[in-house]
Amino acid sequence: MALIGTVDTLLKQSDLSKFEVALNYLKNTDLDEVFTNSSPGHNFTVELDGKNLFAIFQTYVGKSAESAKMEGHQRYIDIQYIHSGKELILMSPLHEITTNSLYAEERDIYFPETNNFSTLLLTKGMAAILYPDDLHAPGIAAEDDGQLIQKIVFKVKI
Length: 158
Fold this sequence. Notes:
The chain is an alpha+beta fold. It has one domain: Sandwich (Jelly Rolls), CATH 2.60.120.370. The protein is 15% helix and 43% strand. It has helices at 7-13, 16-28, 31-34, and strands at residues 3-6, 44-47, 53-61, 76-84, 86-93, 97-99, 113-114, 118-123, 126-130, 134-141, 148-157. A six-stranded antiparallel β-sheet has the order 1-9-4-11-3-2. The radius of gyration is 15 Å and the shape is globular. The two termini are 14 Å apart. 32% of the residues are buried.
């Protein structure tokens, strides 16, 4: 089940043993400074605990909902945090899969199709913790204004 809210809210709700390092990184890091190294097409990764916990810094213009693809993971939990801008994420439980796809083990990703989903709006300072049971289609523009989105996706190994 996904957890959604501000960093402070997530610190109160989540299993701290799994997420405390990532959430405290968000609270205690000058993210404006870190994002000076990111631009559209130039994402980078920061390892916080090797392959057990790492952060992918992304800067991009949101895509249309029509071009979004559901994705799922088996080995990692995502913490998707919006540093600036806002985006929509489509979410669907596993039991809504209508067409499955091959799992790419080396990238821990697959792209199933679903007919039913919920829409979540994440704005600056909000995050969603997405478990393997939470299929999701992130990166969708909340407004059609070409606004840049700066997001950090933490990958937490199960």
